[in-house]
Design brief:
- With 1012 residues, the protein is mainly beta.
- The chain has five domains: 3-217, Sandwich (Jelly Rolls); 222-316, Sandwich (Immunoglobulin-like); 323-597, TIM Barrel (Alpha-Beta Barrel), CATH 3.20.20; 601-703, Sandwich (Immunoglobulin-like), CATH 2.60.40.10; 710-1011, Distorted Sandwich (Beta-galactosidase, Chain A, domain 5).
- It has 13 helices and 60 strands.
- A nine-stranded antiparallel sheet has the order 43-44-45-46-47-52-59-58-55. A nine-stranded antiparallel sheet has the order 48-49-50-51-60-57-56-53-54. Strands 29-28-27-26-25-32-31-30 form an eight-stranded parallel sheet, covered by helices on one side.
- Strand 18 (253-258) and strand 19 form a beta hairpin.
- The longest helix is centred in the middle third of the chain and has 15 residues, at 422-436.
- It is globular and about 105 Å long.
């Protein structure tokens, strides 16, 4: 029997598992535009005014485990199916489950083959073609379908497309029934051979997730066009060319160019398509940049078709090793942005997208890496308008091959260095460049992300350079910059950056990802931005990433933001996608506030001799005339009224001004706060928005060190009018002083304090060295790698000896303690001396000690005191950095001042619970019980300190994977820290840098508590 005599299933190779089929019958990619019936309609730029028939809304839907079990279009009755919303993912509408992996492919790896058990969604709806479109070609456009799909009109197979985040368009004219209802079927496959190229660090979600619509094209219509600008060497004029193609290849076309104010600058009318050239110069000419995004309007028309296109004049080039924009070597202050919405996944409403970009602009971000695939077409328009540089990235990542081959070379052989995949790679370059090249915001094209490096990338590079030589090309895995115009890197150490520009100085260096913004972090931004601003070859970087990818879900009626594993998905990478500078609800995290500060475009600081103020303009193009500068003075208990000042500095220049206050008249430490605010409204912020600010530390000749030392010396040891009453009962030493009663447990080391019938605290103050872990602590290179095997989390105090004596002025109780972990023999040994001044309601705690024993870790989370307070001591006032949380390597964005909050308000919300809420550089903190009229104030002798106060223990935070798993306790855990460890970004980056580490070295400090 021959093979020809055998029956076979399925008897053909499905498009979705066929490397030779990328699209079938799809229209080639073109520039994004809408057709309008008139010039007036085109000038609105509104879809509602366009020849545009949206097919969004309710569709009928049928879900199956395989394409082969999906209903036949010939026999099915889709009217009986369930309804589903388009655009949207079916996993967010009750079918299948969201699945998160960072690197791993969630399906068996056998490229280009895909399992026949391939979840499939069949979509169906009816539509009518507007009568006004009779006689024209009707195009059906899908802006995004994940992962691949086949289109059916009136039951006939129209075509197929894959490339999940790229649009696809079909000419359906011949399939339509004029004057009748038409049916549209779309069969969507969760997996395709294209899925091997879409292994990005995000949710695997399926379905028609972007807009679907119809648009007409007459035979005379413009089919595509390219905008080309040629800025003169003196940057005072530019040539403008439109490369236009029509549906038939010929026919009359018109072009009109309007100034930003709407004035006509030039017109063209010709009898055939091709190149249309104009020139703009003189007062009419303005460059486009992220700082000044000046846009012109072009109206292209052919017959009754009108197209509006925003035009920006910009010039991107290499000069020597550096990238120049409009003749200037810019610094990229960027962020990586995935498309994500907590409710709808990659279906992101326009308003939400625009709000994100406005928040970025208000946070001084100037560049967005369109990670790791092209975003919705509207996104690019908004970037042009608001002013962002874009790194447009191809929808290409195959990181999962690293699970199979642990070398980049081996992993590249699967697809990147395999010529069988060349067409698939090239298609993704074409889809990116041909659709979005008319946007002035695009300065760099990226060949993809974490797809190793192979000859297919070289093919992409060559095609892009030929098609669009006006932009640079990026690809981080190409470490030798063979097919890129720059060296790119992810999460380097500072020393590695220095080594890079030393060893490879021929092209500039950019960090396409740095400062992983996972949870509470990143720390160390100051050091990175300093590198960007002092090393000409380092032209900036982009933080990973913008938004936590939590998906809203619920458990037992409680809503929360889910991550990998919360939906039964396996394998998964847990909360690794909760790594944004905005939370899942798109609210700002402390990371964004800190980043905004470090990249602000104006910087004020004291001169080296502290006699003048230096104002540096970090803008690349703008002077400071659009900003109003002002200052005010902050001292403990006093804030002066703001006063305007005049500051003038050209882009890149520094102005020197006399100090606006007389330092010689200061008798206490003070901070000169200088602000720079918008004078006028912009498209992204109102007048008065503070673009930049600094606080300059001033210490007058009469001021003591931090000044707080002399204050609390005066109250800590004054008195001595009456001796304390001391009694011993078993292992308790009881002390009465003034209206306070103290009890010292000489076995457990516990101390309690009651005053005026109020229990001030239930436990402590005791030596304490632990904090709840952050996600960076627990990262792949985090400090928890040392702390866990050292059992730091299990450290507990042990009392060795207790001594007490009356010194005449005070009672001293000295504990000799060892604070040590289980299992191991290392620990901290210290004398902890409690001093109660006679006649005062005060307690001073002096700690002196060090770390001993084998296996002592080099660093430790904190060194300080833990006290468990009465929960009613709830109103907190402090003078120090605030109002938000801050840590040693992430504190610059918080201003010195006096702040008030409840203990609950000190809490910083994170989608994944972890250490939070510290306030640093504190001079004093007070916890008040308003009903009892009593408060507890704390200071540290001679030095600033940090504190936290929570209604949870550190171990509660460690145990919780979601906020709903936390329950507030009827007490407050107050930490007063002499030293604390920084945050770093060790989920995939460095640990805290040296100055921000809390070393296990000898310590000595005194905290002073008193009732007020």
């Amino acid at each position: 029997m021959s093979l020809a005599d055998l029956n076979a299933f399925p008897g053909y190779q499905p498009d979705w598992s066929n490397l030779n089929v990328i699209q079938r019958n799809a229209v080639p990619p073109r520039a994004q535009f809408y057709n309008y019936p008139s010039e007036e309609a085109a000038l609105t730029f509104a879809k509602s005014e366009a020849d545009y028939a949206s097919l969004n809304g309710d569709w009928k839907f049928h879900y199956d485990e395989s394409p082969f079990t999906a209903p036949s279009w010939d026999s099915a009755d889709p009217t009986t199916w369930e309804s589903i919303e388009v655009p949207g993912h079916w996993q967010r509408q009750g079918y299948g489950r969201p699945h998160y992996t960072n690197i791993h492919y969630p399906f068996p790896v056998s490229p280009p083959n895909v399992s026949y058990m391939n979840p499939t969604g069949s979509y169906w709806r009816e539509f009518e073609v507007p009568e006004a479109w009779d006689g024209q070609q009707i195009y059906l456009r899908y802006e995004g379908v994940d992962s691949a799909f086949t289109v059916y009109v009136n039951g006939e197979d129209v075509g197929y497309s894959q490339g999940a985040r790229n649009p696809a368009e079909f000419d359906i004219t011949k399939y339509l029934k004029p004057g009748q209802n038409n049916s549209l079927g779309t069969r969507v496959y969760q997996w395709s051979d294209g899925s091997y190229l879409e292994d990005q660090d995000q949710w695997w979600l399926s379905g028609i997730f972007r807009d679907v619509y119809l648009t007409p094209f007459a035979n005379t219509s413009i089919a595509d066009f390219q905008v080309l600008t040629d800025v003169a060497d003196d940057f005072k004029s530019a040539g403008l060319k439109f490369n236009i193609s029509t549906m038939t290849g010929h026919g009359p076309v018109k072009v009109k160019l309007l100034s930003p104010d709407g004035n006509v600058l030039g017109t063209y009318e010709g009898s055939s398509a091709g190149d249309v050239s104009m020139e703009v110069s003189g007062e009419d000419f303005h460059l486009w940049s992220a700082e000044s995004p000046t846009l012109y309007t072009a109206i292209l028309s052919a017959g009754d078709q009108y197209i509006s296109q925003k035009v920006g004049f910009t010039r991107i080039e290499m000069k020597g090793p550096n990238m120049l924009v409009n003749g200037q070597p810019i610094i990229i202050y960027g962020v990586n942005r995935h498309e994500h919405n907590a409710h709808s996944g990659r279906t992101v409403p326009y308003e939400a997208m625009r709000a994100d970009l406005i928040k970025m602009k208000q946070s001084n971000i100037n560049t967005i890496r369109v990670a790791h695939q092209p975003h919705h077409p509207d996104f690019w328009d908004v970037a042009d308008e608001l002013g962002f540089y874009l790194i447009g990235e191809a929808d290409l990542e195959c990181h999962g091959f690293n699970d199979i081959n642990d070398t980049d070379y081996g992993a590249a052989q699967w697809t990147s260095n395999n010529t069988d995949w060349e067409a698939a790679y090239l298609d993704r370059a074409e889809q990116l460049v041909d659709r979005y090249r008319n946007h002035p915001s695009v300065i760099i094209w990226s060949l993809g992300n974490e797809c190793y490096y192979g000859q297919n990338h070289a093919t992409m590079y060559d095609w892009i350079k030929k098609t669009d030589p006006s932009r640079l090309i990026h690809y981080e895995p190409d470490q030798n910059a063979t097919s890129t115009d720059m060296y790119s890197d992810m999460y380097p150490l500072l020393d590695d950056m220095d080594e890079q520009i030393k060893e490879q100085p021929d092209k500039f260096y950019m960090l396409c990802e740095f400062a992983h913004a996972m949870g509470n972090g990143p720390g160390g931004l100051l050091e990175y931005i300093r590198k960007f601003r002092t090393e000409p070859l380092i032209q900036g970087g982009l933080i990973w990433e913008w938004n936590n990818h939590g998906l809203l879900t619920e458990k037992n009626g409680t809503e929360y933001y889910g991550y990998g594993g919360d939906f039964g998905d396996y394998p998964n990478d847990g909360p690794f996608l909760m790594d944004g500078m905005t939370s899942a609800d798109h609210s700002s995290t402390p990371a964004l506030v800190e980043y905004a500060f470090h990249i602000q475009p104006v910087e004020a600081k004291l001169s080296n001799d502290s006699t003048q103020m230096m104002v540096r303009n970090w803008y690349d193009f703008l002077d400071l005339s659009h900003l109003q500068a002002s200052y005010y003075l902050v001292r403990d208990g006093n804030v002066s009224a703001p006063t305007d000042i005049d500051v003038s500095a050209a882009a890149g220049e520094t102005a020197t001004l006399p100090l606006p206050v007389n330092r010689n008249q200061l008798d206490t430490e003070a901070w000169l706060t200088v602000e720079f605010a918008l004078k006028e409204d912009t498209s992204w912020a109102s007048a008065g928005h503070v673009v930049a600010w600094n606080q300059l530390y001033l210490e007058g000749p009469m001021a003591g060190h931090h000044n707080n030392k002399m204050h609390h010396d005066s109250w800590a040891m004054a008195g001595g009018q009456s001796e304390a009453n001391v009694t011993q009962h078993d292992n308790f030493l009881n002390v009465s002083s003034g209206g306070s009663t103290f009890s010292f447990d000489m076995v457990r080391g516990n101390v309690t304090w009651s005053a005026n019938g109020v229990d001030m605290f239930h436990r402590g103050p005791e030596l304490y060295f632990y904090r709840a872990m952050t996600q960076n602590d627990n990262g792949e290179s985090g400090d928890a790698l040392d702390w866990e095997p050292a059992w730091v989390h299990s450290m507990r105090p042990q009392v060795r000896d207790v001594f007490w004596k009356d010194t005449g002025d005070a009672l001293e109780i000295r504990y000799n303690v060892r604070v040590a972990p289980a299992v191991l023999e290392w620990g901290a040994e210290a004398d902890l001396t409690y001093t109660i001044p006679h006649g005062q309601e005060a307690l001073n705690i002096h700690a002196q000690g060090g770390f001993v024993g084998n296996n002592t870790p080099e660093v430790i989370p904190r060194i300080g005191l833990l006290t468990v307070l009465n929960r009613d001591l709830d109103e907190v006032t402090w003078f120090g950095r605030g109002p938000g949380e801050n840590y040693p390597d992430s504190k610059s964005s918080q201003r010195f001042g006096e702040y008030q909050a409840s203990v609950s308000e000190l809490w910083t919300y994170y989608d994944y619970p972890q250490e939070n809420g510290a306030r640093g550089d504190v001079r004093r903190v007070q916890f008040a019980h308003p009903e009892a009229g009593v408060s507890l104030e704390a200071r540290m002798d001679g030095e600033p300190f940090s504190f936290t106060a929570k209604h949870y223990s550190d171990y509660d935070l460690d145990d919780a994977g979601h906020p709903y798993e936390l329950s507030e306790l009827d007490m407050t855990f107050m930490n007063l820290d002499y030293d604390s460890h920084g945050l770093g970004s060790a989920t995939v980056g460095p640990r805290p840098f040296g100055p921000y580490k809390c070393y296990t070295r000898p310590f000595e400090f005194t905290f002073q508590l008193r009732l007020t």
